[in-house]
Amino acid sequence: MMLTRRRLIAISAVMAALPATTARARAGAVRHWTGQALGARASIRLDHPEAEAITARVMAEIDRLENVLSLYRPQSALSRLNREGHLDAPPFELLECLSLAGAVQRASGGRFDPTVQPLWALWAESAASGGRPDARAIEEARRKTGWEKMKLDAAAVTLQPGMALTLNGIGQGYVADRVATLLEAEGLTDILIDTGELRALGGRPAGGEWPVRLETGGHLALRQRALATSAPLGTTFDQAGRDGHILDPATGMPAPAKWRSISVSASTAAIADALATAACLMPDTGSILAMIGHFEGARLDAGV
Known about the structure:
Blueprint: E1 8-15, H1 23-26, E2 30-37, E3 40-47, H2 51-69, H3 77-84, E4 86-88, H4 92-107, H5 117-128, H6 135-142, E5 151-152, E6 156-158, H7 171-185, E7 188-194, E8 198-201, E9 210-213, E10 219-222, E11 225-230, E12 262-266, H8 269-279, H9 285-292, E13 299-303
Parallel strand pairs: 1-3
Antiparallel strand pairs: 1-7, 2-3, 4-6, 5-6, 7-8, 8-11, 9-10, 11-12, 12-13
Helix pairs in contact: 2-7, 4-8, 7-8
């Protein structure tokens, strides 16, 4: 059974300073909501006169995006594409997410590849049976992968027989970006969104930047940036914690134990998410920096 490290989604935001004449309307505006989102416990704390209504819109947006991008909802656009091999008039969000994924796929030399889903399913199924896939099964699954085998445009997305996509290496970051856009449009300015990847707009309500503790033990101040951390063994297929969830498209095997944790920041959480995932498959720091260099403002913040 797969282990997961993503246990809590947290969103915190504060409205821009209000004129004195409307200060009274702000009294009692803080809304703290807890529930479920993206398959995890979720917490939303908003300081806004319409906090309750905005919270409802945030949850509706996350739910809508899950209906597009989730592998775990049978009727999502992604699940239908995987099941049928073809999707006419794909939703804009699916096209945008795949376009961003394609940019990282090219920059990483193919190491980031959402078409690894057949391999992922093979490893998960083998782990559920208490074993590991053999070389023949891995090679058979690899033949069903390949970014270049997918046809993608605004009219349709088409996969070759047996192919399937996963957006687990970019989707959480993409959702964080979309929620940030929604909250900013509502007039909220000091925003920190944590969907497993971090997206910060503005700073802390009390002043200063958002402090972030890295998994490596270091610290980072975040403002107008996104941060993602990937750990090859942070999520594993097996209970023993040996077979990590980040698979190398070139070999079909889990990422080698070169890196324990890698943190990347960028202008968007989707790009940071994908870059951090791909970085776990890079042989050295130079290769990571070369990949990140394709994205303006992206930065390697930690890698051990």
